[in-house]
Amino acid sequence: MSLSSELLQYLLSGLTMGGIYALVALGFVIIHNVTGIINFAQGEFVMLGAMFMVTLVNAGVPAAGALVIAVILVMIVVGLIEFGAIRTAKKASPLTLVIITIGLSTAIKGIALLIWGTNPYKLEPFTKGGPIHIGGATIIPQSLWVIGTTVLVLALTFFIFEYTYWGKALRACVVNKFAARLMGINPQRMSLLAFVFSAALAALAGIVIAPITYVTYDMGLMLGLKGFVAAVLGGLSSTPGAVIGGLALGIMESMGAGLLSSGYKDGIAFIILLLVLFLKPGGLFGTSGTKRV
Amino acid sequence: MKLLEVTQLTKTFGGVHAVSDVSFSVSKGEIVAVIGPNGAGKTTLFNLMTGVYPPTQGNIYFNDTDITCLPTHKVASLGIARTFQNLQVFNNMTVLENVMVGRHIRSRTGLLGAVFPLWPVQVEESKIVESSLEKLALTGLADKAMEQANSLPYGQQKMLEIARAIALEPELLLLDEPAAGLNSSETRDLVDIIYTLRDQGITIILVEHDMETVMEITDRLVVLNFGNKLAEGTPYEIQNNQEVITAYLGEEGL
Amino acid sequence: MKDLLKQKRLRHALILLFTLIIFTLPFLITNNYYLSVLVIIGIHTIVVVGLCLLMGYAGQISLGHAAFYGLGAYTSGILTSTYNVSPWLALLAGAVGTGIIAYLIGIPIFRLKEHYLALATLGFGLIIHVILMEEVELTGGPSGLSKGIPYLSIGSLVLNNDFKFYFLVWILALLALILANNVVHSRIGRALRSIHGSEFAAQSLGVDTGRHKLQVFALSAVYASVAGSLYAHYITFISPSPFGLMTSIQFVVMAVVGGLASIWGPIFGVSVITIMAESLKEFMPLLIPQAGGEYEIVVYGIILVVIMIFMPDGLTATLVKAYEGWRYRKERANETP
């Protein structure tokens, strides 16, 4: 394989993972901007989406129906979590809230372990068919599903933000929480909405990636963390930044793993994170991180 | 000799001019008050002088050093201390410990010394306690040293902030509404303390609403209105300045 | 001044009493298993004391402390087994090296807000774990260091059993506590506590908040490294698995359960969690036979959430408050005939 087709190959697989990171990162940004919380449990929402999907499909539910039910189930679970844990502790310090979401993440992972065990589950690709060849590189159909879903979900997100009342209210909170409150937007309701919306994004990410990576109880950690890295790359408060950050991370990771060493694949994201924090604390696409007064 | 010089200082918050083109200077040993109606930009001026945020335009010189964009802790280490309009006492510490934090830049113990407090560290520590107790005595809080800071009544918490600020041995002390919320006897004590500090060679700038006190103790006043400097002069000049009377003092019925 | 001395004396008396209890325990306990649990509690206490300094006094959280723990363990393990360096020298090298690494990665991180530290340390922890797994020539990879790690020795006394090691570990754990206590009551400790009270006012008094947070971060990493070295010489075999994210979370749980604002918190938190984890290992398989090795994490997660929501000051502070309330009510009851 020539270098250029090799690079194309890494680009394609990078875009696939990058789309997933973008969806997770978007969830991080929405929750962070609305509530100020960095939600450690975001990756577990991804895992829950994939697990529900696999369970439903194995129980004989048709894929399309299973997808909808799985996403709704995750939204309900996350809604309950927001209601039960995040809201109860709303006056807590940021440190306390971070610890609470770490606890939630650990608990969700543990419960998933008890329910589904340690074995990996396999989900059939959405469509059958062999790999597709593009200019010397190959891509499996499921990757196209991932990329397509990402594009569709992003378009839908921007539509919701732009044209629906709740979307506009959410976006108002994202842009300026204080002003939104003055305009009579209830921050508690917005917090619930932010969590549930992010949960849907995460669940979708988990469902489309499931046929490529297998589904395990501990798949959420890495996906969640890399989603966070992507969000930081994008400046942590910008929604387009999160998307670009996600794609950039996916491509860098895939190139790095391909050209350097695949054993260090999981390390690459964090080396990038530390480098960005060191060199450009505001994120690659954000404004500088000066203190708020 | 000029201790502090502020030139054409401007600060805007999202288009609103909180402070606009303000210039003045303060000489060593003076007591100067900054007055003006609510929202005139007095506290913003203090925040600019102590590096809480950088000004949009203009410069601040302290002892002929440009301190315009220095971070707060550097400004403090040059010898500018302050108190706050809304109390910022360390509630999680005792009264004495609050003042001991004021000795921070006047002491040297580093992490290694903190972990292994050998003889020199202990000597320094007892010096810190000694001088902190001195400052507490000056502000009438000597017998409260071991109490939790948040158990003090409001007036004493204000005194504690002054004790903490002067523990830093500042050349310049900024007092943000020191008399607000004090009863008349506490205000008398405050005036005495301010005179004592002046006699010790500390230059003082204060923001204050209590006009009687201000006119009594200050050498000079700077009057702000909507972020602009309206007038500057001795208490006598200000009291007879027509512009000030209409803009500000008139309302107060002085 | 008098009160200050009295307070100090009471603190010292408590520490003395605790020391006495700790050093009579191994003569009373003859069961080796219980003794080994106490040794592990001692080792974990050293880590958690450092972590509490960071969390309670600098207000920062680290999810990478297992990495510092691992760096200490592997530095000791590799230097002593492969390069025949003296164990004490290796321990020192690990501590200094880990401290420097923590300081360097802390520089960028501390420019940012608190949750970045949590995630950046987590990322750092994962990188270290990946390195431990991948650098097979140096670390032995997933199967661990193949050459045996020697026992620690003091002069001609080789610490080759639980009983002897117990004393070393607890002397160091108490030392760790005393040194941490020194820090809390020093110029640096006051500066850090003042940041908690009002960061605004602290800065206006010349406290360089970022710098002191960074220093405490490095110090807490040194604590973890020393504990890691002790662990390596106690078990005499190391592999990457005990230095992963779960261990980091476990340390945070211990710190939080004990409570951050008291020096007694760590011992209490570590004891409660370690003893609970050990008993879970006994009883969980009886309740849920199919549960795998990591079922404890459910319990950790739930404990963390519940404690943070209902007792954010930790178990120690809550118990002390409850006791004081009970005593107060009792006194009141005695006064009214």
Write the layout of secondary structure elements.
The complex is a heterotrimer of chains A (293), B (254) and C (337).
Chain A lengths: L2 H33 L6 H17 L4 H24 L7 H23 L15 E3 L2 E3 L1 H23 L1 H11 L1 H6 L4 H27 L5 H15 L5 H21 L5 H15 L14
Antiparallel strand pairs in A: 1-2
Chain B lengths: L1 E12 L2 E12 L3 E5 L6 H8 L7 E6 L2 E2 L5 H6 L2 E3 L12 H8 L8 H5 L3 H20 L15 H13 L5 E5 L7 H16 L3 E5 L3 H7 L2 E6 L2 E6 L1 H5 L2 H11 L2
Helix pairs in contact in B: 3-5, 3-6, 5-6
Chain C lengths: L1 H27 L3 H26 L7 H17 L5 H23 L4 H21 L1 H4 L13 E2 L2 E2 L3 H23 L2 H11 L1 H6 L4 H27 L9 H14 L6 H23 L8 H15 L3 H22 L2
Antiparallel strand pairs in C: 1-2
Strand content of chain C: under 5%
Low-confidence spans of chain C: pLDDT under 50, at least 5 residues?
A: none
Structural class of chain A: mainly alpha
Count of domain modules of chain A? 2
**Biggest sheet record of chain A:** 2 strands, antiparallel
Oligomeric nature of the chains: heterotrimer
Sketch the major β-sheet of chain C. Answer: 2 strands, antiparallel
Continuous helix count of chain A: 11
Distance, first to last CA of chain A? 55 Å
Low-confidence stretches of chain A: 287-293
- Give Rg of chain A in angstroms: 19 Å
Number of strands of chain C: 2
Strand content of chain A: under 5%
Can you write the helix and strand succession of chain A as a string?
A: HHHHEEHHHHHHH
Number of strands of chain A: 2
Query: Helix content range of the residues of chain A, please?
Result: over 70%
Strand arrangement in the largest pleated sheet of chain A? 1-2
Strand pairing plus helix content of chain C: what structural class?
Answer: mainly alpha
